[in-house]
Amino acid sequence: MSANNQGTEFDLSWISKVQVNQPAVLRRAEQIQTRRTVKKDWQAAWLLKAVTFIDLTTLSGDDTLSNVQRLCYKAKYPIREDLLKALNMQDKGITTAAVCVYPARVCDAVKALKDAGCDIPVASVATGFPAGQTHLKTRLDEIRLAIEDGAKEIDVVINRSLVLTGQWEALYDEIRQFRKACGDAHLKTILATGELGSLTNVYKASMIAMMAGSDFIKTSTGKETVNATFPVAIVMVRAIRDFFWKTGNKIGFKPAGGIRTAKDSIAWLSLIKEELGDEWLKPELFRIGASTLLSDIERQIYHHVTGRYAAYHDLPMA
Questions:
Q1: What pLDDT does residue 3 have?
Q2: How would you classify the pairing of strands 153-157 and 122-126?
Q3: Domain that holds residue 28
Q4: What CATH number does residue 307 fall under?
Q5: Contacts of 91 (CB under 8 A, 6+ apart)
Q6: Structurally, how many domains does the chain consist of?
Q7: pTM of the model as a whole
């Protein structure tokens, strides 16, 4: 991961006059989604690239030691070895970018990855995920405990009420405290955009999160009714671009929730390539939060190699 974002002083003038042009954003979003996708070898290459951006995630009430272990094994071996050999990619070290779990499962994930002999980082959600409606002290303790257990990345959720009521300085101060509690760990700030009310609020919350020291801004918890959408993503990546122009700091972007198909993943990579450029197409600056996406990517690669679709039992479970 790149050096942590130390943030900037709070400056309301960066957001006070902003108004997002919603019809223009929607037109641009439609353009990305309706474009013809890449085919054949190019498609296989893009899909393997997409695998390396995945934060392979399990955030279920019924998570157990065994399914966290299975997730970690899948993170190390995301695509079947014989398929990689057929593409001459078996020695390229293709793994997912991270494994993402609840704080109580961080120890299990760290141990499973260590036993598998790999250094894939463990990301933990924190700060009262998914609602963020717990006491600030509890939220900060949750960050510290996850880091003590070995988490290298922390996905925090913001208190949405601060955005909805326009308390921008209070939001900045909370995220500053999250940044301090994270220490050297990477801070990914989940905006829960489906609950922010408007695209203008999405832009403002994105900018405040980056000012306060977030290394990544992330669309959603995956638990809202509306998760990662292209209009929201366009607003967020343009906020990232504006922040880069103002400060010279590159902040990462992570869409999460509802990204399930290989075709979806290629559209997300295209968006980043066009809006932020190739330099953002690396795991240090782009992630996809997903639990079922990897299975579909593996199915598509299986089809590319063999010419037929995999039966359910042909591919190992994630």
A1: 66
A2: parallel
A3: 18-314
A4: 3.20.20.70
A5: none
A6: 1
A7: 0.96
